[in-house]
């Protein structure tokens, strides 16, 4: 069977993609039916496509400031000059009535001892709209998670401040009572009490700084000591755990460092500590205990947060990382904490957050494990709109 050019053209006319074939000079030699129909439906200035130079059209749009036309013209020329084997571009092509996105791909081919270049345009609007919806949902989840974290922080601040505020109130009260009873306080006693008040105020001030640093958004990755970050997280949750008679035990390799976003990893740890505390209280465990460990094995950093609260029921173990899934009362939880924690570890540390039930000397409990590589590298920023390969 001898395959004619007409036969090949008929095949291309069956495709939904808009296809154009050009020569080395950029002259249009062929357009398929989808290309012609698209031009008619979008008020294209010409129906005689073979009289148009594709590269000149790109250059005219580029001169008018169309950045995608600049990229397209540059990519086509690089393929023609054999600097690239294939060029690929994603670009928006919105009409007055709808949003649209396309991909453009150029690939050379040989026919009858000559080289030609097939350029195809594929409509990816459905995919891009789905991506936009996912981005909006992801943003909403992040905002809801942030609000939940702020609520947790307010609770921790209340716990942290209750004792020093009580101490200041007690000192002030004793001075007032002494004054009312006309008991004369010697200067040394007054100085001691004032110093004690100052110590409590300094503690309150440090607490504010700790929480401010925790809530600060990281924009750049830094090298930090993980055990220091874990201890900071424990201190933030300290008052809430102490008021509920929860013992915190640690087993840290204090020489492990990490290149990443310190505060968002701290947010994950604080969320795991909060969940462990809630499980211990909800299940009315008598000798409440949370154990944190930090180890590194074969370049994998492993952080574990284990409680003795009875463990996670098997029927929900596969659901606890789903968004909005919670075992708490609606007024106590949004169901976003573990979901967002899992997303943080995956997206920012290329790691994994998992849970298992562990029986040890402290009793049966849930053990959440954070694992990621310690060879974190700065990632080069890459355009989301186009990529050449």
Strand sequence of the main sheet, in spatial order? 2-1-5-4-3
CATH architecture of the largest domain: 2-Layer Sandwich
* CATH topology annotation of the largest domain: Heat Shock Protein 90
Number of separate structural domains: 2
Q: Runs with pLDDT <50, length 5+?
A: 329-335, 376-389
- The arrangement of helices and strands along the chain is HEEHHHEEEHHEHHEEHEEHEE
Total helix count? 10
* Morphology: elongated
Task: State the helicity in percent bands.
Answer: 40-55%
Total number of beta strands: 12
List keywords for this structure.
389 residues, alpha+beta, Beta-Lactamase, Heat Shock Protein 90, 2 domains, 5-stranded antiparallel sheet, 5-stranded mixed sheet, 10 helices, elongated, disordered C terminus
Write the layout of secondary structure elements.
Elements: H1 5-13, E1 18-22, E2 28-31, H2 33-41, H3 54-63, H4 67-80, E3 87-92, E4 101-111, E5 114-123, H5 125-180, H6 187-215, E6 222-225, H7 226-236, H8 238-243, E7 247-252, E8 257-260, H9 262-282, E9 289-297, E10 300-307, H10 337-349, E11 352-360, E12 363-373
Commentary on this structure:
- The chain folds into 2 domains: 119 residues, Beta-Lactamase, CATH 3.30.450; 243 residues, Heat Shock Protein 90 (2-Layer Sandwich), CATH 3.30.565.
- The protein is 46% helix and 22% strand.
- The chain is elongated.
Question: What is this entry, summarized?
Answer:
The chain has 389 residues and is of the alpha+beta class. It contains 10 helices and 12 strands. The chain has 2 domains: 5-123, PAS domain (Beta-Lactamase); 131-373, 2-Layer Sandwich (Heat Shock Protein 90).
């Amino acid at each position: 069977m001898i395959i004619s050019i007409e036969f090949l053209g008929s095949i291309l006319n069956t495709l939904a993609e808009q296809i154009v074939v050009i020569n080395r000079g950029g002259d249009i030699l062929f357009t398929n039916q989808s290309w012609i129909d698209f031009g008619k439906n979008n008020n294209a200035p010409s129906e005689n496509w073979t009289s148009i130079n594709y590269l000149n059209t790109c250059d005219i749009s580029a001169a008018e400031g169309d950045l995608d036309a600049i990229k397209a013209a540059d990519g086509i020329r690089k393929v023609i000059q054999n600097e690239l084997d294939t060029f690929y571009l994603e670009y928006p092509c919105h009409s007055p009535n709808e949003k649209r996105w396309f991909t453009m791909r150029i690939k050379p081919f040989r026919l009858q001892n000559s080289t030609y270049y097939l350029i195809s345009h594929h409509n990816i609007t459905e995919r891009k709209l789905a991506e936009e919806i996912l981005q909006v949902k992801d943003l909403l989840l992040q905002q809801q998670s942030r609000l939940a974290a702020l609520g947790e922080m307010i609770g921790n601040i209340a716990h942290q401040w209750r004792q020093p505020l009580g101490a200041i109130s007690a000192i002030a009260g004793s001075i007032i009572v002494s004054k009312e009873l006309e008991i004369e306080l010697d200067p040394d006693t007054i100085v001691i009490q004032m110093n004690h008040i100052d110590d409590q105020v300094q503690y309150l001030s440090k607490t504010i700084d700790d929480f401010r640093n925790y809530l600060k958004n990281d924009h750049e990755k830094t090298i930090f000591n993980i055990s220091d970050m874990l201890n900071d997280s424990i201190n933030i949750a300290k008052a809430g755990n102490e008021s509920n008679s929860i013992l915190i035990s640690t087993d840290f390799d204090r020489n492990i460092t990490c290149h990443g976003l310190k505060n968002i990893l701290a947010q994950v740890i604080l969320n795991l500590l909060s969940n462990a505390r809630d499980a211990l209280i909800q299940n009315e465990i008598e000798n409440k205990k949370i154990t944190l460990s930090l180890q590194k094995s074969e370049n994998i950093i492993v952080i574990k947060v284990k409680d003795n609260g009875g463990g996670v029921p098997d029927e929900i173990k596969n659901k606890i990382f789903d968004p909005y899934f919670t075992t708490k009362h609606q007024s106590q939880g949004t169901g976003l904490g573990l979901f967002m924690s899992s997303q943080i570890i995956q997206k920012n540390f290329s790691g994994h957050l998992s849970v298992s039930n562990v029986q040890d000397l402290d009793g049966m409990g849930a053990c959440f494990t954070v694992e990621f590589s310690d060879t974190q590298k700065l990632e080069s920023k890459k355009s989301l709109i186009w990529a050449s390969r």
